[in-house]
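Hello everyone,

My group is preparing for a crystallization screen and wants a predicted model to guide construct design. The compound we'll soak is flavin-adenine dinucleotide. Before spending weeks at the bench, it would help to have a computed complex in hand. I've included the protein sequence and the ligand's SMILES below. Output in structure-token form would be ideal because that's what our pipeline reads.
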Amino acid sequence: MIIDFSKYSSVKIGNKIEVAVLKEACKSDYYLIGLASNMLINNANNLAILDDKFAYIKDCKDYLEVGAKTKAYDLYKYAKKNNIANFEFLSSLPGQMGGLCKMNAGMKEFEIANYILELNIDGVWQGANFSYRCSDITGHIFAVKLKKENSFSLEKLELFKNMRANQPSGASFGSIFKNPQNYSAGYLIDKCNLKGFCIGGAKISEKHANFLINFNKASFDDAYSLIELCKEKVFKEFSIELIPEVVILK
Ligand SMILES: Cc1cc2nc3c(=O)[nH]c(=O)nc-3n(C[C@H](O)[C@H](O)[C@H](O)COP(=O)(O)OP(=O)(O)OC[C@H]3O[C@@H](n4cnc5c(N)ncnc54)[C@H](O)[C@@H]3O)c2cc1C
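Reply:
Good plan to model first. Here are the tokens for the complex, ready for your pipeline.
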């Protein structure tokens, strides 16, 4: 199938690219994407998405088995409806479960890795190692088994909603960079006076400096140049190397 990444990706940047659809859980050389909510894609080859059959939530009594194509928001809704704990933070996270596990997505100390029992990677159930916004998973995730605990918390839901208050609206891929140890990437970029700085149709948000906003039909080059500029300026000013959280496919 053809995906137009200027419509599909959350940052609304990219071209029309032929993408395969994986129908079976097995090893392959494709580069698998989810909802492209943490990606900046130019002219990549060999891309694939999962078939719709991998969008499911199965209650296995002691745990949940969730297909990797399931949207984070759908798992949040399921948890709320069935009074299950720990997935309140998914109400605020775009993406599918495969991407979430691969990136160890989360908010503050609430990370998906905390609730993972096992993953189906390339057709084999196994464990994985996780750190801040990172995993050692190299294969394709087809499903995940998650801890099932009581009870859903409306207080936590409110907490996550409030955490989003300083997040800018507009097309973005979430945070540009991971936070370096003891610093916030947004603070460092802000100190380089880059808030509001534009290249073409891409700008650093005035509201939060670790967000790149596509405000006017930005190209891949606009966004990429802006990311490189942030890295250069922060390194020059603070000798700190910013590591992108966004996955960039040139
Ligand atoms: C407005 C906004 C706010 C955000 N806020 C946060 C936040 O607070 N915290 C946070 O952690 N993230 C945040 N993100 C980033 C994003 O929500 C997460 O990284 C999410 O996990 C990405 O899921 P996805 O399906 O879109 O993955 P994609 O962006 O499509 O892919 C991301 C990576 O995962 C890999 N991948 C995708 N699916 C699979 C699979 N099935 N098997 C193996 N690898 C796979 C891809 O190859 C790629 O390397 C935000 C994004 C946006 C747009």
